[in-house]
Amino acid sequence: MIIMKKIFSNKNKILSGGLLIALSTLVSCKKLIEIPLNPPTQITRDQVFADSATTISAVAGVYSYTPGGHGIPYSDGLFISSTSLSGHEVAYTNSYGDNAQFYSYNITPVNDEITSLWTAPYSEIYQINDILAGVTGNNNLSASFVKQITGEMKVVRALCYFNMVNIFGGVPLVTTTDYKVNAQLPRASTAAVYTQILTDLHDAVKALPVTYPSSGHARPNLYTAIALQAKVNLYRSQWQAAYNEADSVINSGLYDLTTTPISDVFLVGSAEGIWQVPIQNLYGGSGDANQFFPYSTDAIPNYIVTDSLLNQFEAGDMRLTNWLGVNVVNGQNVYYPAKYKDLQPTSPATECMLLRFAEMYLIRAEAAAQLGNLEQALTDVNTIRSRAGLASSTVNATSQTAVLAAVRKERRTELCFEFGNRWFDLNRTSADTKYPANGQAPAVLANWQVNYALYPLPQAQLQLNSHLVQNPGYH
User: Fold this and answer.
1) In the chain, where are the structural domains located?
2) What is the pLDDT of residues 130-139, one digit of tens each?
3) Which residues are within 8 A (CB) of 114 and not within 5 positions of it... i.e. 6 or more apart?
4) Longest dimension (CA), the chain
5) What are the boundaries of the signal sequence (predicted)?
6) SS (H, E, C) 271-314
7) If one looks up domain 17-75+107-251 in CATH, what number appears?
8) How far is the C-alpha of 42 from the C-alpha of 24, rounded, in Å?
9) What pTM value is reported for the model?
10) Looking at per-residue confidence, does 431 or 191 come out higher?
């Protein structure tokens, strides 16, 4: 693990020894959030939070990613590959492992990937809760420092719960480090999880400044929290709130759309990076590239882009030529995801894009269309199309259904292979009759059943915690 000079100005190690060992224990332990007391070889919590320097070392671990699950839990490519399969953006061509279950919706509760999707964010949440407990009421730290760190941690926790609630539904709400209590928590309702997410983001908006607290955009600023609020409110059909928040980010003057070239969007220093975390992997590049890239230029990739997605790209769309790779196999073009191209570390480096500016235009566009402001919606859609090298949309500007279809189409081509956007779009709008029926989950996903919208809880967690109840349709 390297020192994150880009994120933190001090040169402490990423994690104090005690927290690193504790986190490793968490990732490997069987029960949810079960953390033993520090053995004598570890430093105490009082030492970890003794001053701003030691505290910031612990905070760095929340943002650092290395293979094995430390830090931001969505940088290893698993979340993206699983949800891309479920959204039929890609198909899985290999016969080993549990990956194919996500495409065919026959996921079992003993699926290894399901276990990782559950445990990785909870390990992050434990670390966040520990930091929040360590800085609260800590007289060794300045009030401004505590305010900053508290705001940052609540944004990260909100992200974790947002992704979990969209793949599992209601999950246990863990907000402390009391593992004896946490290990037996029941599932909270979906509404309760969203309430916690929005509470954390509301607190973060009040705490965070406009400026980023260090170089790069790994540690959230005010607009990181607002951008995530916009996404959450879009998913909750709170159209005016989503519109206002996306509009605030767009008009902040801090971000821009990357145009020269579009392939630079996911590199360090991207103008689009609202929240962009360095990938701290000395040997293997990004998790996304290692998931999606084929092992040779003439091999069939493990994940191939489906015809249904390919057909959404128009002639001249720069996203097709820059964000999809292609192998020629037996004389046929076979496409695979290639937004992240770093099988090995590169210079300039790739960074994991958690939130980016283009999505704010699409959030504002969808919210505007839902609010009846169809001209604004098309203006935002055309901003994204123009960046992709395409002419303005020709849809009927007086038809709400047509405009929403245009927004959906643009979301599909702009946000493909990014944190489940396609999969979640199908699920979150499945009951909204304003969207064209031929673009909804029952029409586009074979043998669709409503239970497919959520993944099963890991069987091991159900056996360890009798208060957990499995999602419908899974046994």
Assistant:
1) 17-75+107-251, 263-352, 357-453
2) 999 999 999 9
3) 98, 107, 108, 455, 456, 457, 458
4) 70
5) none
6) CCEEEEEECCCCCCCCHHHHHHCCCCCCCCCCEEECHHHHCCCC
7) 1.25.40.390
8) 13
9) 0.91
10) 191
